[in-house]
Amino acid sequence: MQALRSSLLSAYYYGSLPLRWWLRRRAVRRRMAPIAVLFYHRVADDRPGPWTMSCRDFARQIDWLERNFELVSLEETQRRLRNGQNDRPAVAITFDDGYADNCRYALPLLAQRRIPTTYFVTTQHILHGQPFPHDVARGAPLKPNTLSQLRELAGSTIEIGAHTRTHCDLGATRSPHKLYDEVVAAGEELQSALGRAVRY
Fold it and tell me: What is the distance between the alpha carbons of residues 4 and 160, in angstroms, rounded to a whole number?
């Protein structure tokens, strides 16, 4: 069954390639080229997991993205979408959660290449050094970033944003007070702790 599925996916991919290229060229001519927002979580070679990418794979993916797309900030993505104009296929890179491991390889690589990146951190874990419950549950209590790591990114192409206070499921949160605390108050607290503006 798996072999049949793979064959069908390959047939679809290669069979639709000419049409997809034609649609892409047409979108570019109309100044409506696609923009994708990619989100990563953790880049490291130890403790592999469903949200972890190896350093080698990450570097290869960034190389490919640089060759094939215009890499833009999240702010620029919003501007282009608001104006309804994008001349070239573009990608915005983001990270979620705020794993300390990202400061060893991924973020230095992105900063060195001057690639705009929005790095969303969960404030409770950053401010108190608490590992994420989902990592603890799988026996891998990975370290979150520290404030000093985040402050060191100042002046680079990495913009820090808030990814809620506790990494809760906002879709399941019904309390307006809880939503405010998770989104707005957490962002304000992160801004105060970093000593610089947090736009997201």
Answer: 44
